[in-house]
Every structure is written in structure tokens, then in C-alpha cells.
Design brief:
single chain; alpha+beta; Coagulation Factor XIII, Chain A, domain 1; three-stranded antiparallel beta sheet; 14% helix; 29% strand; Chitin-binding type-4 domain-containing protein
């Protein structure tokens, strides 16, 4: 596995890739950064070049951390931020209860649907999470890696949601590390119909874009869009574990590309309170 230090030395010299995907529901920091006007390419928080296929969790996370680093606009989403009077990372955008079944959605760009697999994760070490939610503090590479390891350990299984289809990736072979159905999978990369990640919902181009109904400066804000070629929704369900409670924690999203040596990462600030609905 590449070291954190070696990856950090390489990153400043890497080419910027085009368009891909990011978490939209619940509202990720990337989405909020875009709504503020600072982030002009919300789908561009990319960890690259890394080996993310067929292994899924062996690559060092580097400066991307569990929340993503957007090199195109030089925004580190592993620390709270603000722009034009709008902020992200300072407060939860959604509140859930233990045991909740939650609908989650991300947006994949039409020009950057690389297929592959994706996961949603929770870290139950609040001390590590606190490093990512403290205003004015940017976590070190070592702290980002420690947090990432915690999120990997807290992967929310597709199979935890009763009745949800949890297949194996058609681009993975039995015996490979990607042959697992606790992660979520996109459709076959080169399928003739409903290909890749856009084929999961099979929705129309532009399906993850809509406008707010606010007034003045808040009117006609584009939400859920992608900056290159328009996006498609990718919708799944996750189950919040029973044994977790936090006034402010993070839901991390990670998409591993099948076609390219890249992972796309974003996170949403959430709270988990109350008693389990199953209890």
C-alpha cells in the first residue's frame, strides 16, 4: 500500500480529471460548497491515481480524507468552511434515529460514469470525527488516514436493508477482493442498456438537478447538478446502526471507479439521536 507521505508528494503534480460524482442526499459538504458559489465542480473531489479495483479499501486516503479534497477549486472538505455567507460542516443537515432506513442519493456525471462500486460509512470514534468538524482546524494526513480507517470499519452494508437488491459487480470476478455484496454495485460498465452507475436508477439525464424556490440571493440556485455533461441519480437505502448516538457526526460516501484509478469521496454532516425504531 502506498504511504501517506509518498501520495502527498505526488498529488500536487497530478493532472486534473474531468467530471464524476458526489453525494447529494443528504446534502454533502460538496453540495453545500456548490450552493455557496465557491465550488464550481462538485463532482471533482477525486482521490487519484490509486488502486481501487479490484481491491476496494487498500489505498492510502491522502489529503482526500473521508470528506474529499477538490483540487480543481482547492477546497478541503475535511474541515468546515463558508463562502458568501453560507457554510458547511458546522451543523448537521439531517437527523436520524438508530435503526432508521434512510434513502441516500448521489449524482454521477454523464461524461464520467466509470462504473464500479460504492459505499456509505459511519465512524463511531467521536474523537476522530471531531477532527473533521472543528471550525478552523484542518486534519493532518495521519489524522485523515486514521479517520478513514474508522469509516472503513463502519461500512454500512447493503444487505442490512431488508428486501434491498444487493448483487455482485458484473465487472468483478469471483475470488477478487471486489466480489462482495455488502457494498453497492453499479451495473456493468460497458452494458448496452442501463450501463454503469447511471443504470442503477435508469433515470433521465439531468435527473439530479433542480432549483430552489427561494427569493433574492437564494433564488434559482442549482442543486444536485454536475458541471460537465449533466448528471444521473444513483439511489439506495442504508440502515443506521442501533448502537450509535451523536449530536454531530459524518456520513461518508466513497465511489470506487472500475474504469480508472480513481475514487470519489464526499461526506454529509448528520446527527443520530434517540432510541432505535426497532427497540
Amino acid at each position: 500500500m502506498p504511504s501517506i507521505q509518498s501520495l502527498s508528494l505526488l498529488l500536487p503534480f497530478l493532472p486534473l480529471a474531468t467530471a464524476h460524482g458526489y453525494l447529494t442526499i443528504p446534502s454533502s459538504r460538496s453540495r453545500l460548497g456548490t450552493e455557496s458559489g465557491q465550488d464550481t465542480c462538485p463532482e471533482c473531489s477525486i482521490l487519484e491515481p490509486v488502486t481501487v479495483w479490484p481491491s476496494l479499501d487498500t489505498a492510502a486516503i491522502g489529503r482526500s480524507g473521508p470528506c474529499g479534497y477538490n483540487a480543481r477549486v482547492s477546497v478541503d472538505y475535511n474541515t468546515p468552511g463558508s463562502f458568501n455567507g453560507k457554510s458547511w460542516g458546522t451543523a448537521p443537515v439531517a437527523t436520524y434515529r438508530p435503526g432508521d432506513i434512510v434513502t441516500v442519493e448521489w449524482c454521477v456525471d454523464s461524461n464520467g460514469d466509470h462504473g464500479g462500486m460504492f459505499s456509505y460509512r459511519l465512524c463511531q470514534d467521536q474523537a476522530l470525527v471531531d477532527k473533521l468538524i472543528t471550525p478552523g482546524y484542518t486534519p493532518t494526513l495521519a489524522e485523515k488516514q486514521a479517520a478513514e480507517d474508522c469509516f472503513v470499519a463502519g461500512t454500512l452494508k447493503c444487505t442490512d436493508v431488508s428486501g434491498q437488491t444487493c448483487g455482485f459487480s458484473p465487472d468483478c470476478q469471483q475470488g477478487q477482493a471486489c466480489w462482495r455484496n455488502d457494498w453497492f454495485t453499479c451495473n456493468k460498465f460497458d452494458a448496452g442498456d442501463r450501463r454503469g452507475c447511471q443504470g442503477v436508477d435508469g433515470n433521465k439525464l439531468g435527473s439530479c438537478e433542480y432549483e430552489t424556490s427561494g427569493e433574492g440571493a437564494d433564488a434559482d440556485v442549482r442543486i444536485g447538478y454536475t458541471s460537465i455533461a449533466g448528471g444521473y441519480t444513483v439511489t439506495k437505502k442504508i440502515r443506521i446502526p442501533d448502537n450509535i448516538s451523536s449530536n454531530h457526526t459524518l456520513l461518508s460516501f466513497k465511489w470506487n471507479s472500475f474504469q480508472t484509478p480513481q475514487a470519489y469521496i464526499s461526506c454529509a454532516d448528520i446527527a443520530i439521536k434517540g432510541f432505535s425504531r426497532d427497540g
